[in-house]
Specification:
homodimer; alpha/beta; 6-stranded parallel β-sheet; 6-stranded mixed β-sheet; 15 strands; DNA-binding
Chain lengths: 373, 373
Amino acid sequence: MLTPSCLQIVQIRIDEEKERTTFMVRLGGNEMRDGGDLKDGARERPTLKTIAFMTGLGITTVSRALKDAPDIGADTKERVRLVARQIGYQPNRAGVRLRTGKTNVIALVLSIEEELMGFTNHIVFGISEVLTGTPYHLVITPHASARDPMVPIRYILDTGSADGVIISRTEPNDPRVALMEERGMPFATHGRTNMGIVHPYHDYDNETFAREAVRRLVARGRKNIAIILPEGHLSYTGHSIKGFRDGLSLHGARSVPFDSVTVESPLTAIHDATRALMSGPDAPDGLISMAGGCTIAMVAGLEAAGKKLGRDVDLVSKQNSDLLKWIRPEIIAANEDIRAAGMELARAVLASIGGAAPESLQTLYQPSFAEDA
Amino acid sequence: MLTPSCLQIVQIRIDEEKERTTFMVRLGGNEMRDGGDLKDGARERPTLKTIAFMTGLGITTVSRALKDAPDIGADTKERVRLVARQIGYQPNRAGVRLRTGKTNVIALVLSIEEELMGFTNHIVFGISEVLTGTPYHLVITPHASARDPMVPIRYILDTGSADGVIISRTEPNDPRVALMEERGMPFATHGRTNMGIVHPYHDYDNETFAREAVRRLVARGRKNIAIILPEGHLSYTGHSIKGFRDGLSLHGARSVPFDSVTVESPLTAIHDATRALMSGPDAPDGLISMAGGCTIAMVAGLEAAGKKLGRDVDLVSKQNSDLLKWIRPEIIAANEDIRAAGMELARAVLASIGGAAPESLQTLYQPSFAEDA
DNA sequence: GATAATTACTGTAACGATACAGGAGATTTG
DNA sequence: CAAATCTCCTGTATCGTTACAGTAATTATC
């Protein structure tokens, strides 16, 4: 085995233009070896070559030692790991990616319209929390949802720019899911699909939320209920409608139509529509909102119509953050923990990359109402 | 010049394990050339080699043609570009990065505490909008601000994992700025510094906002004013204080101390502190809030103390989104456009990478008050 | 004691791109 | 017409990593 003492630097090359100093060493025998760069003030980034030189081992050996390969001696592994840690070795991502195709990237595909009260923040930090301590980086790939949502997916697939993808705003029959499935790209969806493909997902039980919302309104004596829904093409719209209808028939209430706006409409439109609704002859006495942002405009709208929360009408709303209680404590709010969703999604993608079965990577969170706490 | 007709495929190798088909071609003369992979159903990703084969040119020529190098003929460039476009060539990022060190990545370093009403969303999509159409990807690098904020910066510098960095929560004497400056890493800060380093930044004129807030309160007859400030170590805290003090002396008002909480405190704490303040003997008749999120808790707090906005007290607040007017139309709000900030920051980093002078990459946005619109 | 198997390590090639140093052929120059 | 110049193109080496196909030395097998 080579020991440091049999290494001898015999030639130093100084390349002034590149500002680097390289050198040759003579080994125990007679052969010369390229010693790599001399690090000026530890500024040059260490590579496998650096460790190979410092330990007197071959580059391949070092690579395999750091991978804990079975054909490397235990003490050699220990020595290599020690040196690697000492000099702060970190694998060059471009080298690994070029050689193996592994990007160590998770792509989060977000629609610009995504935002209602901190959604992006929560999901990003949820994902990040899981990725911390792994070699994965998080790349945000945005798209204007009005344009083709397939564009970012195709880009990622065609360029192989991620090992796994997280998408949201899932639709029951989602072409993005079909394409990624076909191409064998690991992914997880925020929201379920209904197209015969078993895949990792995380979802919030919006059906239960809507049904439970009706129950709580009826328990307060409200029988005429309107709901403001998400855009029609999304998966959770269907779940919301089902829960709402089931709740109505289960608890004996009736639906007051309110479909001129969605939770994605401009707040002004929501405000005006709510005021019109609450001023009309068939004004509901119960309201359900599927998103916290629009709830604020609804409250303003119903008050502009002269109604008072808790007296003339009750309102059940989902929220991402704990904001609504500060606005009107009368609002009956259920929390959707988007940060936890991000964590579940990240865990699911990582496990999927690791080869776990998709049916084991599906989670559904139940609504928790603030008033039950 | 070689034309397609002088190319002749003479040998086809089928590698069944790797599921790829490669082939050799005979050129006009006698030499053989590796033709690269035959694309099965256009699934294999095209590389320079693919284009080289299709055009009959050398790989180097293709590379230089796509870079519009001066030593390549005009018609050759045209031909290469045509083929590249036809087959949807996109440079392999790992190849470029390994060879040149260029990552084509912009890192956005965010503190987990960043969020107040959609900040993350707005800045991410602002940056993305500028990066769209460039080869740059956006990587989110989060950190718990309680821990060492230098960690992500050092990681990026040590691993060379980005070409440019955007940071926020800038401090007057910010060690991150000093380090990136020293290492020559292009960056832009959200917020200014005060340490003798000229660097790209984007900032909101919080000093003017605070001074103007005082002016508007005094114009409504309010003379006893309290302000809720950001955490003390941040740059914009100092700007806010200066603007506030200048406003007080300029318009003849006095300060009511309110420093038991900051805009980052839990909303419950802000609520309670505001209620206590407004119930006390020295309750102010004017309030200034530097962030929209905490304004909501303040409103709830002052109302819990029996005060009424617009009658007993006026409140001036900054906001990222247009939410406050729905909560209490009496709130005097000024908008800070975070999406625009993201765009400015992205533009600044890109220009800095391109070698532009830092002093030309500094922008300061003026507050715009909703009531002036 | 010769052969086989095992252990521990190593060199070469390749991933896709580009910097660099040519190099053939046409064109200009003296 | 030879030499110099210009145009346009090309091969080689390299970035850092890993798959693969070895190899030398030691240990086990019969």
